[in-house]
Specification:
Bound molecules: manganese (II) ion
CATH architecture of the largest domain in chain A: Alpha-Beta Complex
Helix content of chain A: 25-40%
CATH superfamily of the largest domain in chain A: Creatinase/methionine aminopeptidase superfamily
Number of helices of chain A: 15
Number of domains of chain A: 2
CATH topology of the largest domain in chain A: Creatine Amidinohydrolase
CATH class of the largest domain in chain A: Alpha Beta
Low-confidence stretches of chain A: none
Radius of gyration of chain A: 24 Å
Strand order of the largest sheet of chain A: 1-4-5-6
Oligomer: homodimer
Strand content of chain A: 5-15%
Mean pLDDT of chain A: 95
Chain lengths: 456, 456
């Protein structure tokens, strides 16, 4: 199917939901240390959803299913530096625009237009000036902007065929990156080398990383963006690395593997608990199921496992009610995945939370990013984990509060398990689910096998 | 030597040049598609020069050789997501700050302070608000800001020992990246795969690219940031890839090699002309020599070579005066290199051009980024090239104007030479020069040997 057909379908669906015009800006690149040295450009996801291709310094106006494109033709001198770039008319034809104009003409088409602020300050300032109202990306939308945001959420919550094609590509390249990462551990000396091997797979497919990679022997630091540690034989390496296709669709995969190629018995015990939680959650995914219940299922399976190992003491269900699981699993079971790795998180919880629902202030639930009944076509991550976070476990208040529920001495025997996470990307289908990242093994023995193959 | 000693020395030298206080902001990271998903952070180079380490959301105040650090302590919850990060006091001790305060206290220390606007809009807006004057990065500095800019230029124009240590590291990793890139050509099918192999070397050393890599079989597009072309046996691959160390110091290397491992005779002929220009320029580099003369030397050597090949007709010196060389070599011979790949280009031509000099409007000189007498400790690139840019060579006006000076039929025989550039990083020494990137061969036969080794 041609991209313009998909795009027409998307804007027709939008027109069924709202009756006012919409302008979406692509955004512009950010300068790094001087104007000609820019960070890689990444358009606004809302723009990408309706414009289909990564255009810079562009805007689209949508009304009643019609698309107007606003973009300037390349400067005549630009051919020397940037080669022949498509003209406005060529771009308009490609994306099926009904009309195409210079960006300066946008000012004549602003009336009653709703929008969503783009992340980069230059663009949201421009949006604010043109639409004559203050549009800050971190500020909840109001009026028609809010209606627009809700309409876009309802569209982007489930994926069409064109989106799924891209999401599968991203998943497949990310799977390959993880396989190469596990294999690279046989010879790598530092975290950075594993990261390099994994990102090279992504770059080699002419894709980018969808987010800053986490590749660390300190998986207990949840957003660890350092890569300088050397790899020791007893370490577990946690890699959370995902690709993004050229049109912006993301994957998000985490695997945890032993640097030596072989889990210690304590590492294996905990790994199997995390995997049990992972498998139970995926097993449960189906239309109508509450994602919040899946989170609680993960919490319960983890609590059960830790009780079995003698680390926690009590009834798993009671422990979960007291947030005991959250000492070791302090984040949510996952999130929406699409054009953004946390899809539509620029809109706060508008996408993640069903209307009328709010974040819990319970420690064990506050980081849950998705709280909705599942529907066919939703893509979510399932990513249970176990972490020994010093800031949590060494907190005297926590030690005191939970002194009889945690066997702290027993826990000490698991000192070589600092952080484990297993994350896959799961599509909700009509009858259940499909794991888009299933080609990457996650069983402990299969992970060991991948690691050991490289050592031979 | 401890970093704090270097930093103290730098700010003492600054204090010898100006007698007013200075505040430099580090800048903040830019959000990608939602606030938690950011582009990699890169501090302002002026900040890095005096603060030494990449701090985010920080400012330093310099006065009479004293350093005040303004930065907030990490949020107590940040340990969960980001691990233990150094406190304000630890950072202050590391960089030898005389005083350290929360960022909110900066407002009490603003009086008479000069500054340089940071590239990211959030930060330059904040600078403008705090200092109560409009500070746009693209606007030439005025008053004390201009005095500050000139003082910083005079410091950063030549590199101290600590800077050179970092610049050598960046050069060495970039040399390795190019060797791996040449070797990868034996099996790669697409440009993206060569790029991946090269950038993996940089990532594996826990460095970043100093600028968006150019890895292309269409070297005639000077800033080609596409990597989707397949590699054909007759193609030349042009790779302009450089590393940046963790504290921000850059390298900038270009090599051009045959995909097949063997230059055609026409490719070899042109390659040898570009290399002759490259070698002649480096031979000439010494204190006191005008960089503009080095550019003209490159132009003359290229014109001579093209006359010898029968592509140009006339006396080389006359052809250069008429900008004939610029049909094929339309850019400058190089630029300053340091914390920025085009060092201090955020200040316009303040660093690149000696006071009182302005850019030429001649086609063959207007892109010259450096026009100063050389001094020991300056690091410059030498990067002659030959390109068949369709936008230039197919321009009917140019065809007409130069119809008797270019042998267009002869030129057609060189159709397999679309773009060649050879770029090295050259330090001006007391007695001449030192090529920091000399470990990477540039002779045609040596390049072929590197390429062929991988094929075996
Ligand atoms: Mn995730
Ligand atoms: Mn250069």
């Amino acid at each position: 199917m041609h991209i313009s057909t998909t795009l027409r379908h998307r804007r027709q669906r939008l027109a069924e939901l709202i009756d006012f015009p919409v302008i979406l800006w692509s955004g512009s690149s950010n300068s790094r240390n001087f104007p000609a040295n820019t960070f890689p450009f990444r358009p606004s996801s809302h723009f990408l959803y309706f414009a289909g291709i990564p255009l810079q310094n562009a805007a689209i106006r949508l009304e009643s299913g019609k698309l107007q494109l606003f973009i300037d033709d390349p400067h005549p001198n630009s051919a020397l530096w940037h080669g022949e770039t498509p003209t406005r008319e060529e771009i308009a034809a490609k994306i099926g625009a009904d009309d195409a104009r210079a960006i300066a003409e946008l000012e004549h088409y602003l009336e009653n237009a709703a929008t969503i602020p783009v992340q980069d300050a230059a663009t949201w300032t421009q949006q604010s000036q043109l639409l004559d109202r203050w549009l800050l990306p971190q500020q909840p939308p109001q009026g028609n902007d809010l209606e627009l945001a809700k309409a876009i959420v309802s569209l982007r919550l489930t994926h069409d065929a064109a989106a799924l094609l891209e999401l599968r590509k991203a998943a497949s390249v990310s799977v390959e990156a993880h396989k190469i990462g596990i294999a690279a551990t046989a010879t790598a000396k530092r975290e950075a080398e594993i990261r390099a091997a994994m990102e090279a797979v992504i770059i080699g497919h002419n894709m980018t990383t969808a987010y800053t990679s986490i590749v660390t022997v300190h998986g207990e630091v949840l957003h660890n963006n350092h890569y300088h540690h050397s790899l020791q034989p007893g370490d577990l390496l946690l890699a959370d690395v995902g690709a993004e296709t050229e049109t912006g669709w993301a994957a998000d995969i985490t695997r945890t593997w032993p640097v030596s190629g072989k889990f210690s018995s304590t590492q294996r015990d905990i790994y199997d608990i995390v995997l049990a939680a992972h498998d139970a959650c995926i097993e449960k995914i189906a239309p109508g199921v509450e994602y919040g219940d899946i989170h609680l299922l993960a919490a319960t399976v983890i609590a059960e496992g830790l009780v079995d190992l003698g680390i926690l003491q009590g009834k798993p269900e009671d422990l979960v009610k007291m947030d005991l699981h959250a000492l070791f699993f302090p984040h949510g079971i996952g999130h929406l995945l699409g054009l953004d790795v946390h899809d539509m998180e620029d809109l706060g919880d508008l996408a993640g939370y069903e209307e009328g629902r709010k974040r819990s202030d319970r420690f064990g639930l506050s980081y849950l990013r998705l709280n909705r009944p599942l529907r066919p076509g939703m893509l979510v991550t399932i990513e249970p984990g176990f972490y020994q976070v010093p800031g949590i476990l060494n907190d005297p208040k926590i030690r005191d509060q939970y002194q009889y529920l945690v066997n702290w001495e027993r826990l000490e025997q698991f000192a070589d398990v600092r952080g484990i996470r297993i994350e896959d990307d799961v599509l909700v289908t009509e009858t259940g689910s499909e794991v888009l990242t299933a080609a990457l093994p996650n069983q402990a023995s299969a992970i060991e096998e991948l690691a050991m193959q490289a050592k031979i």
